[in-house]
Amino acid sequence: MKKGICIGSLPGSSMEAKFELAKEAGFDGVEINTIGNDSERLQIKAIAEEHGIEVISVMNSKHWACPLSDADDQVRAESRAGMLDSIATAKAVGAETVLLVPAVVNDRISYEEAYQRSQAEIRKLIPAAKDNEITIALENVWNKFLLSPIEFCRYIDEFDSETITAYFDVGNIVLYGYPQQWIRSLGNRITKVHVKGFNAGEMRFTYLIEDCTIDWNAVMSALADVGYNDYMTAELPVDSDNPEGRVHSISEDMDRIIAGTV
Fold first, then answer.
1. Of 78, 127, 146, 228, which residue is most buried, by most CB within 10 angstroms?
2. Distance, C-alpha 52 to centroid of its chain
3. Rounded to whole angstroms, how far apart are CA atoms 249 and 247?
4. For all residues of the chain together, what is the average pLDDT?
5. Do the Cβ atoms of 193 and 223 come closer than 8 Å?
């Protein structure tokens, strides 16, 4: 299994410094945010290649401010445009996946509306993703949507497209489920994995091992059972007290998790 880290987890005054630190700490890849213009995309690709780092995936930037479940056609159109920028970014930098939060349920958007609208909008994006050989991976987040693994499986399967997969976040599930159970339910629908720690007793996110109540050995067993052997990508905050040292610690913690020795 390969180790990745999100660009937002890396301290540094420049992209060059961030990628250099990722390499020094032993990461194989970096997940980046959506980039709006071709020159910056090509610059990121060059930096990644210089440091021998793979750009794993691209995080969409519009899905919270402009959710695909919104009642306003213009908001949804802006969200689709943001996804097209993400797909173009992924193509330019050599990534194979775009992360998408599929919908948001709130006091204005019902569960049923979120389900129907988001599926309709995602279907419009499949041709562009397929043409660019990009996978759209849907992430489980605290959006009051897709709250069971059975429903998550159904939602993905209804697209009947290999382009739509799951970006499974281990830490996000602990609030209302068991990650090892979700992994076995989702099975080969999972194409990418995020990791962060969570303390179930105190209801808060943590770093990967310190104060974390996740059974990482059970998580790794489940990933092995479903045949997942791609990237495990850390999505954690920069440690203001020890920014560079924390990146190295995250990498070391991931080595322990992957080895099953936590």
1. 146
2. 21
3. 5
4. 97
5. yes
85, two tokens: 């920028």
Task: Give the model confidence (pLDDT) of 100-134 as tens digits.
Answer: 999 999 999 999 999 999 999 999 999 999 999 99
The pTM of the full predicted model, rounded to 2 decimals, is 0.97
Q: How far apart are CA 122 and CA 71, in angstroms?
A: 15
Q: What is the pLDDT of residues 232-254, one digit of tens each?
A: 999 999 999 999 999 999 999 99
Token output for 239: 């440690």
CB proximity list for 65: less than 8 A, separation 6 or greater? none
CB 168 within 8 A of CB 192: yes
Quick one: residue 260, left, alpha or beta (phi over 0 = left, psi -120 to 50 = alpha)?
Answer: left
Q: What is the DSSP string of the chain?
A: -EEEEEGGG---SSHHHHHHHHHHTT-SEEEEE---SHHHHHHHHHHHHHTT-EEEEEE-SSTTTS-TT-S-HHHHHHHHHHHHHHHHHHHHHT--EEEE------SSS-HHHHHHHHHHHHHHHHHHHHHTT-EEEEEP-SSS---SHHHHHHHHHTT--TTEEEEEEHHHHTTTS-HHHHHHHHGGGEEEEEE-EEETTTTEEE-SSTT----HHHHHHHHHHTT--SEEEE-----SSSHHHHHHHHHHHHHHHHHT--
